[in-house]
Amino acid sequence: MTTREELFNIAENWFQEQEWKPFKFQKDTWKAFLQGKNGLLNAPTGSGKTYALWFPIVLNYIKKNPNYKTKHTKGLKAIWITPLRALSQEIKLSAERVTVDLGTQMTVGIRSGDTTTNERSQQKKQMPDLLITTPESLQLLLATKGYDKIFKDCSAIVVDEWHEILGTKRGVQMELALSRIKTISKELRIWGISATIGNLEQARDVLLGQESGALKNSVLIKANINKKITVKSIIPKKMEAFPWRGHLGLHLLEEVIPIINNSKTTLLFTNTRSQCEIWFQKILEKHPEYAGEMAMHHGSINKETRVWVENAIRNEKLKAVVCTSSLDLGVDFAPVETVIQIGGPKGVARFLQRAGRSGHRPGKESVIYFLPTHAIELIEASALQKAVKQNTVEDRLPYLNSYDVLLQYLTTLAISDGFYPNEIYQEIKQTFCYQTLTENRWQWLLNFLVMGSQSLQSYDEYKKVEVEDDGKFIVNNRGVAMRHRFQIGTIVGDVNLAVKYQKGGYIGSIEEFFISKLNRGDVFTFAGRNLEFIRIKEMTVQVKNSIKKTNKISSWMGSRLTLSAQMSELLRNELYSSSEPKENQSIEIRSLAPLFERQRRESMVPKPSEFLIETFKTRDGYHHIFYPFEGRFVHEAMGSLLGYRISLLSPITFSLAFNDYGFELLSDQAIDIQQVLDNNLFSTEYLLDDLQKSLNSTEMARRKFRDVAIISGMVFTGYPKKGIKMKHLQSSSQLLFDVFRDYEPDNLLFQQAFTETFEHQLETGRLRLSLERIATQEMVWKECEKATPFSFPLITDRMSREKLSSEKLADRIKKMAALLMKK
User: Are 369 and 259 in contact (CB under 8 A)?
Assistant: First the structure.
C-alpha cells in the first residue's frame, strides 16, 4: 500500500511540473481527507481550491488500487456538486488534468439538465468514476431504482460554493441527499467549499448534520490567503443635491470607456437582467466600435450564447461583458483584469465575490470599480471600502422545517426503491433543517403522502404513495413517478416562455408576466436585439428582428435586491461620518458635501443617537418620511406596521413607498407626529399580531404558498414544452390555500407559507432588532418646507411606478429638481 508521504510526493511533483507550489491549505486538506475526515474548506475564488479536493480524491483511489496504471476499477468514486451548470465544464477540465497526468484511467462525467439522453443512458449502464452534478440531478439519481448500488462505493461528496446553496431550499435538498448517501456508503467523506461568510462554523454543522459522527470527525480549514482587493469609486464631476435612482448611472457611461480600454477584459456587473440589457444597448449606441468585442451574459439568454461568451472571455476575444449574477461564481477567467459594479450590490459577500472575478489567480490583485446609479449610493461605496479592509461579511442563515422539500424528498425515495419510515426518520433527524421534527409532525407528513392531508382525502390525485404489508412506503403508479421526476427541484419562479424566431432559432427565455403586456407588432429589447412580438404559441414567444427603436426593455419579477443587515450597519456608520472633520472622511463622503450641506439646510443629517423623521406638503399630499437605513424589505414591513398603528389612533389612509434608506407614508391629511412619538408606535410589543393585520399577510402567504404547493408536489407545473400558465398555477394553489384556511388551518404546508412570509420575505427578526435600536435613539422630527435630498429618491421612486414613459418621467423629475434648487 502506498504511504501518505508517497502520495504527497505524487501531488507535489505534479505541482512542480506546472511550476506551481501547493499552498498550506491545499496540503492540510489533502492530509485531513486521506485521514478519513470530513470538512469545510474556506478559500477565496482563484486560490486553487479545486485542486485542494480533486487531488486527495484521486490519491485515495491510488492508495486503494496500487495497480492503478494497468488495472481500472470501475464505479462511482466521488461526486462534485456545483450550484451552476455553467461551472461543470471548468471543474471537469481540472479533474481530467489530474486523472490523465497521473495516469489513473479514471473517467470524469457531467450529469445536469444539459446532459443528453444518450449520455444519461450510457451513465445508467456505467457511471463515471468522478461525477460532476447539481443538487437537482443528485436527487434524480436517488429517484433511480437500485440507487444504493450506484452510491455504495462512493468515497467522497464535495459541495462546491456551499455558501451559495446554504440559506436556500437547495441547501435543504443537499442535507437530505447527504443523510441518505451517508447510510449507504460507509466510507463516505463529505466536504464543502465556501467563500468567507460570517457563520462558517454553522455552515459546517449544516453540511455535515447535527449530532452525527460526520460532524465529530471533521475539520474547518481556512486558506488565510491575503488577496489584495482594490476598490475605486467613480465619482461624478458635478454632484447633484437632489439624487434619484437610475438617473446617474448612465450619465457616467463615458467614465467607463477609459476603464474598458485600459484593461484586457472588463466585466460590468448589474444587479438585474433589465439593467444588463439597458447598459449593453447604451454602450453600443454611443460606442459602435465595440460591436463584436462586447457581449452580454445573463441567465435568460440561451445556453449556446452563454457558453460562447464564457469561452470568448477565456480566449481574450472580448473587451467587455455586461453581466448579472450569472457570472458571480467560480468560472475561471484569467484575462479579466477589471470589474465594474453598477449600482450598490446590497451585500458585502456579493461585492467580494464579484471583485474576485478579476485577478483570478493566486497572488493577483483584484480591481473593482463602483459606479453609483444615484448619489446616495456613494455612501454604500464608502461602506464597502471599509468592509473590504475589515473583512466584514454577512451570515448565511439556513432554513428550518421546510416541509415542502421533505415531502418532495420522501416522494423521490418512494418512486425509486421505496422507504421504511423508521429508518428514514432517524436519518432526517440528524440534519440541521429537521433536528426538531417531532414524531407527531412526522406522522402528519406520512399521512399526507398516503392520503393527501385531512381535507383532501376524497381526491385520489393527492394519494401518491402506497403502504405495503411490511410497512414500506412506495409509489406504484408510473404517471405519478413520471410527473414527480419532471418536478424535482426547489427553484420556483414565474413561468418562463421560450423566445424563438418564427422560422426557428432559440434566443432565450422570458417571464410570462412581461410578455402578457405586449400586443402583436410591439417591439422590445431582449438578448441585445430589438425584436418584434408576433404571437405566443404552445409556451413559445414567436418574434422577428426589428430595426425600430423601442423603450420596452424585457424585465423580470423579483429582481430588486435589499441591503443585508451588515451592509445596513456599515451604511449608517458611513452616514454618521459626514458630521466628522474632513480628514476623517472617505473620498466618497467628502464628494457628497454639497448634498449633505443642502440636507442640513432643509432638515438635518442624523447622528448615531438620532432617528430622523421629516414631514412636508406638496400637491401630491402630506409626506411623512422615516429613515431607519435598514433595507427595503425591513422598511416595507415597518412602514405597514406604523401605518396600521397610526390608523388605530385616528382613521386615515396612506400610500406606502420605500427604498433601502427609508420609507414614506403619503396621505391626504397630516399625521400628528407628536402623537406617534407619545404613543410609542415603534414598540416591539404585539409585533407579529400587528404585522399580520397591517400587511394583509394572508395575501402575501397566499403568494408564498404557490411555491410551497409546487415544491411539495401538490400542484403540477406541466410536462416539458407543455407548461401550465402562471394564472392556472396560481388559481390551483389559491384554491388549496383557501381549503386549508377554512377547513384545516393546522396544515403544516399552510403554516409554512406564513412562517416563510414573516421570516424570509419581511425579515421579522431584523425588524425587531431595528425597532429595538430605534427605541434607544432620540426621535428628531423636522417640519420641512419642501422635499429634501434624502427624501427625493423616495418620492421619485414612487413616481416611477406611475404609468409614465421613461422620457416623460425623466423630464418631470428634472423639472422638480430644478424647482427645488431655485427655492
Answer: yes
- DSSP symbol at 36: T
Rounded CA-CA distance 284/264 in Å is: 18
711 plus 598 within the same structural domain:
yes
**Is residue 357 within 8 Å of 117, Cβ to Cβ?**
no
553 part of a folded domain:
no
Cβ atoms of 276 and 298 within 8 Å: the answer is: yes
Cell of 283: 454602450
Helix axes 135-142, 169-184, angle to 10 degrees: 40
Burial degree of 177 (CB within 10 A; 0-12, 13-18, 19+) = buried
Specify the DSSP class assigned to residue 758. I
Report whether 616 contacts 789 (CB < 8 A). no
AA letter at 563? L
Q: How far apart are the first and last CA of the chain?
A: 86
Triad 704, 705, 709: Cα angle to 5°: 130
**Looking at residue 803, what is its pLDDT?**
46
pTM: 0.86
Q: What is the DSSP string of 300-351?
A: TB-HHHHHHHHHHHHTT--SEEEE-GGGTSS---TTEEEEEEES--SSHHHH
Count Cα atoms within 13 angstroms, Cβ side, for 483. 19
How far apart, in Å, are the Cα atoms of 761 and each of 385, 695, 705, 773?
28, 12, 13, 21
Q: Name the DSSP class of 166.
A: T
Domain that holds residue 342: 229-390
Are residue 717 and residue 778 in the same domain, yes or no? yes
614 vs 784: CA distance, rounded Å: 7
For the chain, the residue count is 823
Q: What are phi and psi of 246, to 5 degrees?
A: 90, -20
8 A C-beta contact, residue 784 and residue 601 = no
pLDDT of residue 733: 84
Contact indicator for 458, 743 with CB cutoff of 8 Å: no
Q: What is the pLDDT of residues 66-93, one digit of tens each?
A: 888 889 889 999 999 998 776 788 899 9
Burial class (CB in 10 A: 0-12, 13-18, 19+), 21: exposed
**In a shared domain, residues 235 and 218:** no
CA distances to 213, 376, 762, 782 from 346, in Å: 38, 13, 16, 28
535 and 423 together in one domain: no
Distance, CA of 367 to CA of 743 (rounded, Å): 58
pLDDT of residue 810: 64
> Which segments in the chain show pLDDT lower than 50?
803-804
Q: What is the CA radius of gyration of the chain?
A: 28
Cell of 128: 463515471
Measure the CA–CA gap between 717 and 332, rounded to whole angstroms: 35
Q: Are 627 and 612 in contact (CB under 8 A)?
A: yes
